[in-house]
Amino acid sequence: MTTTHDIFIGVDAGATKTKVVIEDNLENFLGEAYVGAATIRFDTKKAWQTILNAINKALSTKGINLEDKSLRFHAGMGLTGCEIEECYQEFINTKHPFQTLVVKQDSYTACLGAHAGCDGAIIIVGTGVSGVEIQGEKIIQVSGFGFPHDDQGSGAWLGLKAISFTFMWLDGRIDSDSKLLDDIFQKFDRSLPKLITWANAAKPTQFAEIAPLVLAHIPKEDPIAMNLIKRAAKYVDAVAAALVKRSENNVTLPCALFGGVASFVEPWLDVNLKTRLVPPKYDAAKGAILMLKKHVQGK
Question: What is the pTM of this model?
Answer without folding.
Answer: 0.82
